[in-house]
Amino acid sequence: MKELSSAQIRQMYLDFFKTKGHDVLKSAPLVPQDDPTLLWINSGVATMKKYFDGSVVPKNRRLTSSQKSIRTNDIENVGHTARHHTLFEMLGNFSVGDYFKKEAIAWAWELLTSPDWYALDPQKLYVTVYPKDQDAKKLWEKVGVAPDHIYEVEDNFWDIGQGPSGPDSEIFYDRGQAMNNLAEDDPESYPGGENERYLEIWNIVFSEFNHKPDNTYEPLPHKNIDTGMGLERVVSVFQHAKTNFETDLFMPLIEKTAEFSAQRKYGKEENDDVSFKVIADHIRAITFAIGDGALPSNDGRGYVIRRLIRRAVMHGKKLGIEGPFLYQLVPVVGQIMQSAYPEVLDQAEYIEKVVKDEEKRFNVTLKDGLELMDNLVSSTKKEGQDTLPGKPVFKLYDTYGFPLELTQEYAADNGLKVDQAGFEKEMEAQKQRARAARSQAKSMGVQDSLLIDIKTDSEYVGYEKLAADGILKDIIVDDQLNQQVAAGTAKMIFSQTPFYAEMGGQVADQGVIKDQDGQVVAQVVDVQHAPNGQNLHTVKVQAPMTAETEYRLAVDVKRHNKVKKNHTATHLLDQALRDVLGEHTHQAGSLVEPTYLRFDFTNMGNVTPEQLAQVEKIVNNKIWENISVTTTVTDIETAQKMGAIALFSEKYGDVVRVVSAGDYSREFCGGNHVDNTSEIGLFKITSESGIGAGTRRIEAVTAREAFEYLEKRNQLLQKTAADLKAANVQDAPNKALALHENLKTLENKVQSLEAKFASQQAADIWQNVQEAGAHTVIAAEVNVSGMDQLRQLADQWKAKQYSEVLILATQTGEGKVNLLTAVTQDAIKQGIKAGDLIKHIAPSVGGGGGGRPDLAQAGGKKPAGINAALKQGIDWVASQG
Asked: Which UniProt keywords apply (predicted)?
């Protein structure tokens, strides 16, 4: 076995499969693109779904990658076990309907054992197979695996529901009995058993069945290979590490963390080691997730990042680290991963800022959490209990970021236990809510063999012309190939077409199809890419059409030109946002329609009105500068040297199109664009909003739509000026300001009069003190403007101590009610709380509320219930003894 670094192991894997004809794919971002079923990219195959289900046929059916992935379903195990991680890399080689078991098994064995590659000792390797898959067993024996090193395991069948599935083979490395946690003769001490000796390093899935919706299985029309080798695991083998953490992927992070904690060192105390491991693991996931466009928030993937940061901070405190420190580990992650992910160091300053800001925010939250912890301990002891309840313990964990083990330690220091079962119940309820919030469509689609098998040559000519003659090659109706179609909806492929297929945010072209006599025979309503890349037209057939017949295809030019203007505008907008907000901003999605454009982008916090105005000004200036828009067709390396911006969500072939607006904007793009920015005419942002954690959305219009938008605003302004009786539009703001000042003066006078009226009422109600059991109560309906004046009356009551309990109600117009309750400190000590009282009486007025023990308030929509509420309040106070 060779002595290899993690970078060498990763690169050697990719290089090996490149020699076997595989295309090496760059790791996709952790934030899934166009896949709502996933919160994160959680495996290598997650990025291959479109290939395996047949919706897209790759140019090369042999693919390999080292894919970074995130899983947080068992986050509590991180640091306590040898190999649990939130972020990990999955090395994989994939065959999409190309090679199968014979090649996959032979190449796996060659990579692992050949002196030219990993050079592992064959005697230390074991494999498992599915019992019914005797073909795989024979192939393993053929490459040289001893029969007693092959185990048949019933669980070796990969199946996640509807879509491709099949048997699999797992490869194990024997680390020796010295690494085992079991006796050698223990029943679980075998490859595939629950032990530390035999380490699973690779899984090869032979995807050969379609799992159909009716839970039956049929052979796949195109069999696939899907493999996964965990980089962290295999590195631990090469570096003779007891766990994944004692490798070059984690130790620099652990050593740096130890520098922040002068008191603790890794390898001395088991509990400290757990904290070191959690921090090292979490900062990797945090760094990559933020670098790929996610940001901390209270929901979705943003919540995952926030939770990871808070867990890491809490473990830092356990190591005696005070103040922000995690952000200083970001460049360490970048240095470890530099060979494969240079972008981490490029973005390090931005990622550090996000992490540091979140650490500071959590330190504020932490103080509230510690106060809640103290109150919980105090109340538990006061009630004579010895166990902290599960629900508030979960709140500490979920809202304030307290790991369960920290709460358990804190409780133990105070002679208490924790209701762990209650905590687990709350945890499971949260997981159920999270699962329900996401789509349940977890599996891939069933392969459509018809479209996969259609390999008709079809050329897109829409860059040069918007009308062209094309021979109708394929007619598909109800998933069947037809030679002709008389009417209805059909899908069609032509030898050439000017119709753009939807891609990169640009909507598909629409238009008509004519016969050779010039008669319209069909309307083109949509165009998508078929699995093999052809433009697949969805048409409404109006007259009979026949395969192998030539037709005239004509794009709706007016609509197409409007789309072009909006598409070029999105490129200008993209660059303008980078200019104003910073280079960390990148596109997160777009939609280019004929009448408007939509552009999603990443950014921390809101975009200010001033920034939006600046962006809009930049775009319009570029439009009015009459900049030529050019397209360069070149190879991807040349395009990158030109400085062209590539989008994470797109996969680029060997030849790419680069669209440039002079020297200002340069992007990879296969869409349609104007020849000169002046054709756009005018650009106007109509809205800006947040659509998710760290993601903003701008909607805008151009050309005629921009003029019409501004004209409507102008008409609205003119009407407003007329209503304000301004001499002209320019005077409207001053008129409005003067009107506002007059209104403010009148409101102050009204408030003053209302206060005097309330004081006069108060003089009467303070005299009406009632006995309620052992307590005194003032309960009255008053005629005031709302809750503010009720609180003013409560302040007067409190200053004079007219009674022990106060209950006030008022009607505020539109059929609404405000209630207020107040209680003296002496009455609180006797068990009467304003919050409890308000909750008791609020239902009478059709509402609800709450508050502190001394003051509470509620709203309602049932004025007729006021008298009943006041009476119920008096009765409730009397019942308290």
From this structure: Aminoacyl-tRNA synthetase, ATP-binding, Coiled coil, Cytoplasm, Ligase, Metal-binding, Nucleotide-binding, Protein biosynthesis, RNA-binding, tRNA-binding, Zinc
Residue 613 confidence (pLDDT):
96
Known binding-site positions for Zn(2+): 567, 571, 669, 673
Residue 20, Cβ density class (10 Å: 0-12 exposed, 13-18 middle, ≥19 buried): middle
What H or E segment, with its residue span, contains residue 304?
A: helix 300-318
Alpha carbons 468 and 499: distance in angstroms, whole number: 9
Are the beta carbons of 690 and 707 closer than 8 angstroms?
Answer: no
443: confidence class by pLDDT, cuts 50, 70, 90: very low
**Which of 3.40.30.10, 3.40.50.1820, 1.10.260.100, 3.30.930.10 would CATH assign to domain 6-243?**
3.30.930.10
Q: What is the pLDDT of residue 543?
A: 95
Using the CB atoms, write b or e for 304-314: b if 16+ within 10 Å.
bbbbbbbbbbb
Domain boundaries, the chain: 6-243, 283-437, 449-553, 560-701, 760-879
Instruction: Give 447's DSSP letter.
Output: P
Residue of 250, 253, 263, 278 whose CA lies nearest to 328: 253
In the block, tokens 């072009």 appear at: 564
Cβ–Cβ under 8 Å, residues 701 and 709: yes
**231, two tokens:** 């980089």
Name the one residue in this structure whose structure tokens are 């259609």: 454
> Nearest Cα to 687, choosing from 558, 597, 564?
597
Which CATH architecture fits 760-879? Answer: Roll (3.10)
Hey, what are 556's tokens? 């709706």
Distances (CA, A) of 639 to 369, 482, 657, 660, 676: 52, 42, 8, 11, 21
Q: Is 742 helix (H, G, I), strand (E, B) or coil?
A: helix
CA angle centred on 493, ends 489 and 499, rounded to 5°: 90
* CATH number corresponding to 449-553: 2.40.30.130
Contacts of 187 (CB under 8 A, 6+ apart): 193
Q: With both helix axes pointing from N to C terminus, report the angle between 732-765 and 787-800 in degrees, rounded to the nearest 10.
A: 40
Task: Kindly report the number of other CB atoms within 10 A of residue 468's CB atom.
Answer: 21
Q: Both ends of the chain: CA-CA distance in Å?
A: 82
- The dihedral over CA atoms of 706, 712, 716, 722, expressed in degrees to the nearest 10, equals 110
591 DSSP β-pair partners: 598
Q: Cα Rg for the chain, rounded, in angstroms?
A: 34
In the block, residue with structure tokens 């005070």: 322
Angle, alpha carbons 463-469-472 (nearest 5°):
110
In tens, the pLDDT along 588-629 reads 889 999 999 999 998 877 899 999 999 999 999 999 999 999
Cα 232 to the center of its chain, rounded Å:
25
SS3 827: helix
Q: What is the pLDDT of residues 684-703, one digit of tens each?
A: 999 998 886 678 899 999 99
**Residues ≥6 apart with Cβ < 8 Å to 111:** 13, 16, 117, 118
Low-confidence winner among 139-143, 242-246, 289-293, 401-405 (lowest mean pLDDT): 401-405
CA-to-CA separations, 197 to 153, 156, 183, 274, in angstroms, rounded: 18, 20, 10, 21
Nearest residue to 853 (alpha-carbon basis) of 874, 815, 827: 827
**Which residues fall in the annotated binding site?**
567, 571, 669, 673
pLDDT digits (tens, 9 = 90+) for 1-10: 789 999 999 9
For β-strands 87-96 and 198-211, DSSP reports them as unpaired
SS3 of residue 413 by DSSP: helix
Residue 478 confidence (pLDDT) above 70: yes
Q: Is the dihedral of CA 810, 812, 817, 821 positive or negative?
A: negative
CATH class name, domain 560-701: alpha beta
Tokens standing for 628? 């030529």
The H or E element that residue 638 is part of is: helix 636-641
741-770 mean pLDDT? 80
Backbone angles phi, psi at 821, to 5 degrees: -130, 145
